[in-house]
Amino acid sequence: MPDKAYYAALGLSSILEKVLSGERLSYEDGLALFACPDLTAVGALAAEVRFRLHGDAAYYVVNRQVNYTNVCVNGCLFCAFRRDHADEDGAFQLSKEDILARLEAAQGGTLRLDEMHMVGGCHPGLGLAWFEDLLRAVADRWPDLPLKAFTPVEIAHFAALEGISTLEVLRRLKACGLRMMPGGGAEIFDAGLRAHICPHKADAEAWLRISGEAHSLGILTNCTMLFGHLESHAMRVEHLLRLRAQQDESGGFTCFIPLPFLTENSRLTLPEERSGPVRGLDQLRTVAVSRLLLDNIPHIKAYWIMLGPKLAQTALWYGADDLDGTIVEERIGHMAGAASAQGMTIAELEAMIRASGFRPVRRNAVFEAMPGAETDACAAAAPCKETR
Ligand code: V47
User: At what angle do helices 39-54 and 13-21 cross, to 10 degrees?
Assistant: First the structure.
């Protein structure tokens, strides 16, 4: 139980009271948590909420990431993954056969995937029919494999290419087996900064609206925030509160992923204090503040690819309850300098979770505990049950 006198000395008495009684935190509370000098005090509050929701469970998923192309019309300054033209050095586009072969190879022997995670650049030449055909082929071959694909930004791009509404795009993809959507492309919602770092991308309003449309069709989605670039703490808090407001309205966000900006090969120039490698404390704090402000989003992911495995383990004590998964192949973070491996085995993920003092629970894309996993973990966590 956190020490009341200590939190009073930090000026966080009312935040402590709210956290203990489950009352919603305000914008000012978010700023105070970012300003608090004692990171461990902020982390302890987030841990309180995390244990209340999930007990000692820490989730992971047996998944395979696929990036179908890096050719992209958006030209975001921060992105090291993108290529502006198909004939540029390093540009790629996978064929349907390449993608099926990758999924086949990831499921050798008795190993079965519980999630296919697929995203890509906004390619000017890939129409909706190409993706419909691909999703049908995957669903025909592996009918039980949950397909998690396309960010709201890709959905906006398909709609613009086809001259149809984003809702229609979502309906058509759902009919082909789309079950879940990843949370990328949210970046930072602040309009002024977005106009600088990703001026051609779907704006905040479109990103949130498309997430809400997906929820209305029963497609669960994730949400993200790219941080550690040019944004202020106020912009982070505003971003989190806009996600919270959207979740009040549409209810389908399953997991929030704070993505620390990786700087290699980026075209963004950062101030000196943000450009060095020693940013772990800020990353832990952002995980913790996210857990505390996002009282209506069940899961917070410490994405081991971007945080690195050691910080991801630590983040489990700062409000996170999920590590993502086996991944197998990752390009977006690695092209930006991620030092982590390309993938992990189930044994490695479970060992990592146990070594951090938590109980591994294998889940699928929509956070259903998998047969053989310790199902009581979900029973103990009401928000997890709600997402089934
Ligand atoms: O949309 C791009 C971000 C996102 C960089 O939903 C960068 O379960 C850091 O969204 N440094 C893609 N981040 C990754 C993503 C994701 C990953 C894992 C799980 C889920 C999920 C979603 O990565 C992009 C962008 O926001 N990004 N460049 C960079 N240099």
Answer: 10
Residues 6 or more apart whose Cβ sits within 8 Å of residue 1: none
Encoded tokens for 126? 């890939």
The protein residue with its alpha carbon nearest to ligand 1, atom 21, reads 182
| φ and ψ of 357, to 5 deg | 95, 15
C-alpha span between 246 and 275 (Å, rounded): 32
Q: What is the DSSP letter of 387?
A: T
Assign 355 to helix, strand or coil. Answer: helix
304 in contact with ligand 1, CB cutoff 6 A: no
- Token readout for 32 is 């105070």
> Are the beta carbons of 159 and 165 closer than 8 angstroms?
yes
Answer yes or no: is the C-beta of 228 below 6 A from any ligand 1 atom.
no
Q: Is residue 324 helix, strand or coil?
A: strand
Q: Does ligand 1 have an atom closer than 6 angstroms to the CB of 78?
A: yes
Provide the percentage of residues in the chain whose pLDDT is more than 90: 90
Query: Is 306 near ligand 1, meaning CB less than 6 Å away?
Result: yes
Q: Spelled out in words, what is the top-level CATH class assigned to the domain 4-387?
A: alpha beta
Average pLDDT over residues 340-356: 96
Please give the structure tokens belonging to residue 263: 């700087």
Count, residues in the chain? 388
For ligand 1, atom 2, which residue shows the shortest CA distance?
Answer: 79
41-45, 64-68, 105-109, 324-328: segment of lowest average pLDDT: 105-109
Classify 295 as helix, strand or coil.
coil
- Dihedrals phi, psi of 103, to nearest 5 degrees: -70, -40
Beta-bridge partner residues of 178:
147
Of 216-230, 267-281, 334-348, which gets the smallest average pLDDT?
267-281
Most distant CA pair in the chain, distance: 63
For residue 213, the surrounding DSSP H or E stretch is helix 204-216
Identify the pLDDT of residue 15: 98
**Is-above-0.90 flag for pTM?**
yes
Q: Which amino acid is at 73?
A: V
CA pair distance 370, 327, nearest whole angstrom: 17
**Cα 299 from chain centroid?**
10
